[in-house]
Amino acid sequence: MTADNQPILGLHLSPRPDGSSRLLLDRFQKGVIAAGGAMDILAASGRNIEGCRGCGDCYVLGECVIQDDMNIFYEAVAKATRIVVSTPVFFYGVPAIGKAVIDRLQVFWSRIYKLNQKRSFPREPKGMVLAVGATRGKDLFIPIKLCAKYLFDAIGFPRKFPFAGYRRIEEPKDWPLDQLDEVEGYGRAFASDTLDLIDVDNV
Ligand SMILES: Cc1cc2nc3c(=O)[nH]c(=O)nc-3n(C[C@H](O)[C@H](O)[C@H](O)COP(=O)(O)O)c2cc1C
Questions:
Q1: Nearest residue (CA) to ligand 1, atom 15
Q2: CA-CA to 3 of 20 to 30 Å: which in 54, 62, 125, 187?
């Protein structure tokens, strides 16, 4: 558990339940547990999550009018003060199912920016992002970093966060062991609040 008695929330955004980004998050979780922390993983995969309709009802209601599996994410995000997102790169962005989750979190943005309901947290919230792609493009993670920056802002978290991106991984079997060990180290550091708010983009 973290200091506020809430487990770290791991958001897994791939449509593949057991792919590369899940292994990444599992190893991060192993590090969290090794540091005496706890972490719950919520996966987008296999869920019934409609894309945001842009209807604007949440600007007035502070709630989403769509009733689907997104309710689980709303509850979890509302409680969390530590969130780690793990995503693969799909066409330089977040996969559609994961983007649906992010877009639907607009509800939190509405509460803060439209309804003036500033969030208060039991301690300073912190986010982190893990990403994986199959190619080696220099700019591979730029769109995901930007998307995550505004996602964290929308839910009342700081816009700055540690980021670890891994290239040339198409399948879980492609992971070099030293990179997985590194991610486990990030999990330990995140759980013990010793990971700096720096960009840790690895080649
Ligand atoms: C639809 C689709 C689009 C993809 N687009 C990219 C891309 O733009 N750049 C890249 O490096 N890898 C791309 N990939 C490869 C995945 O990022 C890579 O295989 C990753 O390891 C998958 O993670 P996952 O198993 O957690 O889903 C794409 C894969 C799919 C299925």
A1: 134
A2: 62
pLDDT at 165 over 80: yes
CATH code at 8-191 = 3.40.50.360
Q: What is the mean pLDDT of residues 158-166?
A: 93
**For the chain, what are the domain ranges?**
8-191
Q: What is the pLDDT of residue 198?
A: 56
Q: Dihedral, CA atoms, 128, 163, 18, 100, nearest 10 degrees?
A: 70
- Which of 12, 89, 169, 180, when mutated, tests ligand 1's pocket best, judged by the most ligand atoms within 8 Å of its CB? 89
Output the 3-class SS for 138-174.
CCCCHHHHHHHHHHHHHCCCCCCCCEEEECCCCCHHH
- Minimum-distance ligand 1 atom for the alpha carbon of 93: 8
Nearest-angstrom CA–CA distance, 83 and 76: 10
3-state secondary structure of 95: coil
Distance 76 CA to ligand 1 centre (A): 27
Looking at residue 65, its pLDDT comes to 98
